[in-house]
Design brief:
Structural class: alpha+beta
Distance between the termini: 92 Å
Strand order of the largest sheet: 4-3-2-1-5
Radius of gyration: 34 Å
Number of strands: 10
Oligomer: single chain
Strand content: 15-25%
Shape: elongated
Largest sheet: 5 strands, antiparallel
Order of helices and strands: HHHHHHEEEEEEHHEEHEHE
């Protein structure tokens, strides 16, 4: 305290201001110390990283609010005397710091309305990833997609300003229905037995995804209480269509948002094994066929001989 007294005397501070500075300093140190002790206790007792993160963020928000109250309370009488000055300063700051203020409002919106929360997989604008942190001015994504196929992580961390929630569309992979519809297209030749191929594909799809139907049904009922979500069929299915190079059989099935690539790989491996055992089913791919006319004798008329060697070209099927 003697140090503070000597410093205030040297600077020429009023004794009342000196006492308020000391009170604010002691209050700030007390709040910081309590926060540090609580975080130490949490780190020792809570092993689940998700729960630990939520507690740490909650303590951080509470500590920040208490610190503001502790620092501001001794100065309330002085603040009342300069309210006009603060009003002018606040108006100036609102214009100069428009973007940070929008980010703070966006942070409040995210916490109150919860378009997403930590752990959700979202896409906002051109960026997609798992939400790994939410702060006052920005939230952080562990990026997925981009140059990596099937929504897998790239390893990059993206910091997005909170104000973007008011500007860009947000797609949440994890809220609501909590499942994704994924499709695997399989193209076979026109000469293949497409009905048998369709039966094989449906059997394979049911083997890998039918067990999700019951879980999806219960989650759909929960989501229907909040959103107008309705599906008449949740079991896997196979759709038939025709393309230039062959018959397209498209498997449509439910999967977890983070299991897209794994389930697709498992499906394709079973499809390759099943088709390899069938002589009447072949994959189609773009090919070219050249057809030549029959050979003619030397006595053929000039009109007919002009067709000799004529070729036709087009897109066909692979066998």
């Amino acid at each position: 305290m003697d140090v503070f007294h000597q410093l205030s005397t040297f600077v020429g501070l009023d004794p009342d201001v000196h006492n308020k500075l000391i009170a604010s300093f002691i209050g700030l140190i007390t709040v910081a110390g309590l926060r540090w002790i609580l975080l130490k206790l949490l780190n020792r007792r809570i092993k689940d990283p998700r729960i630990l993160y939520q507690w740490r963020k909650g303590i951080g928000y509470v500590s920040f609010g208490v610190a503001i109250l502790v620092l501001g309370r001794p100065w309330i009488p002085e603040l009342q005397n300069i309210s006009t000055f603060l009003g002018i300063v606040t108006a100036g700051l609102a214009v100069a710091l428009k973007e940070p203020l929008v980010d703070v409002v966006g942070w409040a919106f995210v916490l109150s309305r919860q378009p997403f929360k930590v752990g959700d997989r979202i896409q906002i604008g051109n960026h997609a990833g798992d939400v790994i942190d939410i702060r006052i001015f920005q939230f952080t994504l562990m990026e997925i997609g981009n140059w990596v196929a099937a929504d897998q992580s790239t390893g990059r961390v993206i910091h997005v300003p909170n104000g973007r929630v008011f500007q860009d569309t947000i797609a949440n992979y994890s809220q609501g229905f909590q499942h994704l519809w994924n499709e695997v297209p399989v193209l076979i030749t026109f000469e293949s037995d497409w009905e048998q191929a369709k039966r094989l594909l449906l059997t394979i799809a049911n083997r890998h995804a039918e067990h999700l139907s019951d879980t999806a049904q219960s989650r759909l009922q929960e989501a229907a209480q909040k959103y107008m979500i309705f599906y008449s069929k949740l079991t896997p299915t196979v759709y038939t269509s025709v393309r230039e190079s062959g018959i397209l059989l498209t498997i449509r099935y439910l999967c977890e948002p983070r299991q897209r690539r794994g389930t697709e790989q498992a499906l394709w491996e079973d499809i390759l094994r099943a088709f390899a055992q069938q002589d009447n089913i072949s994959f189609a791919y773009p090919t070219q066929r050249f057809v030549t006319s029959a050979s003619y004798s030397e006595s053929t008329s000039p009109l007919k001989s002009s067709n000799r060697g004529k070729r036709s070209q087009g897109i066909g099927n692979g066998f």
